Amino acid sequence: MKLVQGIDRVIEEDLVPFQMPGHKGRIEEDIYKYDLTEIEGTDNLTNPKGILLDTMRVISDTFGSAHSFISINGATGAMLGALSTAFKPGDEIIMMRNSHICVYDGVFLLGLKPSYLYPDEDLIDQLEELVTEETKGIVLTSPSFYGECIEDDVYDWIYERELILIVDESHGSHLKLIDEELSSMRYADIVVHSFHKTLPSMTQTAIMHLCTNRFSRSFAQKNMKLFQSTSPNYVLMRSLDIATDIYINHGKELMEKLLEMCADFKEKLEAETDFRVIYKEGKQDKTRLLLRHIDSVDYADIDRQLRRLGVQTEFQSQQGLLLMPSIMTIQEDFDRLLEAMKSLEIEKKEKIVYKQFKPEKVLEIRRAFLQPSVNRTYREALGEVVTEYIIPYPPGSPILVPGERMSQELIDYLEDFEGSIVGLEHEGYVNILMDEVQE
C-alpha cells in the first residue's frame, strides 16, 4: 500500500501547513488530515513518478492490464480519457444505445459520428450490418446495470476484425473475483472500471486500463489529464489504494462468502415470498440481484415500503427492484432484507414496459447540441428535432439524443412515465431546433 504509507509518512512529519487546502487538516474529523496537495512525498497525478505511479502499477498487475490510470473524476473522466485516447474528431464509431451519458458526452466533445447497437437484438447481426471500412472502433457496455455480461462470441467477432474496442465495465470492477471470463479485459483495448460501484473505495474513484499496446502509456496519460482536476483529492486516491489492498488480500474469500449469501437469499426469498431473483442465461454477474414479483406490481410503492423498513435499494423500475450487494455486505444485511421482503403489502398494477426506441436521426449530436433552440412541450415538439438528451431514470439510458426527431410514440411514453426525466431544462418541456437545419 504505497500510497497509504506515503501519505501517512507526510502526516507524521507534522508539517506547519502553509500550503493548500484551506482547512489545514485541523477540522475535527480525522479524514481531513489525509486531504493533502502535491508536495514532497505525495507525488503528482498529472505526472506520477512516486507513490501514485507505484499504486497504478499495483493496480495494473492486479487486473492484468498493460497500464492503469487513476481517475478522481469517476468513470466519467476515465471514459472521456479512453475515447480521446482511442479516437480522433470526426471518427465513425459504433456504440450501444444504452451507453452511459458520459459516452454521449465524449461523442459530443470529439464530434464523433455514432451508429447504435440495441442490446435487445442480436449484437453480431447488428455489427455485420453496421461495420464499414470507415468504422474506427466500437464502444460496448458490459456488464449492464442488471449484471448481464456480453458473450465471448461478440468479442471474438470484433477482435478478428482488429477494430478498436473500448468497454465500459464500470459495474464490473469485481468480476475477476468471480470468474476471469466474465470480464472484457481479455479482449478490449481499453476498459473502464468504476471502483466505487462494487469495490470498497470512495465515490468518484475509477480506473482506466490500457489492456493492449495499441496506444502508448504517455498518450493515454496526456488524454486522461484533460478530464482531471489539477488538484486531485488524496482522500479519494488513498481509498483506491485501500480498496486494492482488500481486493488483493481478501477479495477472493470475501467474494466466495458474498456468492454464498446471494444464493442462500435467492433460495429463501423464492421459497417464502412470490418474488424471484432474475438472472440472464449465459454470462451473468450473480451478485447483482434483480427482484421481480410473479405478478405485475407497483415497484415504486414497494421501494417506498422497503425504505420505511430500513432497506435502501439501488433503484426500482418497471423491471423490478435492483440490489447491489458487494464484498463488504454482511449476512445481517441479507437477513434484514429478507424479513422486509416478507412483510411487504403488495399492490398489483398494470405493467409498463420500458421500450428501446429507434428515433429518426437528422443531425449528428454535436451539431444539433450547438444549434439555437426553443423550449416546447412534448406535444408541441412532435416532428421536431431535439437539441438535448431525454433520459428516463430508471433505467438511465437516453431515449432521445440531440439531433433526433420527436415522435408520437415517444410523446405517449414520456407522458405515461412515472420516474424522473433527466436532462431536461423543465419537466414536460424539451428544447428543439429553432429552425430546421438543412444537411
What does this protein look like?
With 439 residues, the chain is of the alpha/beta class. The chain contains 14 helices and 15 strands. Helix 6 (152-160) links the parallel strand 4 and strand 5. It is globular, with a radius of gyration of 23 Å. The N and C termini lie far apart (56 Å). The model has no long low-confidence stretch (mean pLDDT 93).
List its traits.
439 residues; alpha/beta; Aspartate Aminotransferase, domain 2; Aspartate Aminotransferase, domain 1; Ornithine Decarboxylase, Chain A, domain 4; 3 domains; 7-stranded mixed sheet; 4-stranded antiparallel sheet; 14 helices; 15% strand
Task: Write a compact overview of the structure shown.
By secondary structure, the protein is α/β, with parallel strands linked by helices.
Strand order of the largest sheet: 1-7-6-5-4-2-3
Number of strands: 15
Identify the overall geometry: globular
CATH architecture of the largest domain: 3-Layer(aba) Sandwich
Write the layout of secondary structure elements.
Blueprint lengths: L1 H11 L38 H13 L3 E5 L2 H13 L5 E5 L4 H10 L2 E5 L5 H8 L4 E7 L10 H9 L3 E5 L6 H4 L11 E4 L1 H4 L7 E5 L6 H9 L8 H39 L2 E3 L11 E5 L5 H10 L6 E3 L2 E4 L7 H12 L22 H5 L3 E5 L13 E3 L14 H9 L3 E3 L6 E5 L6
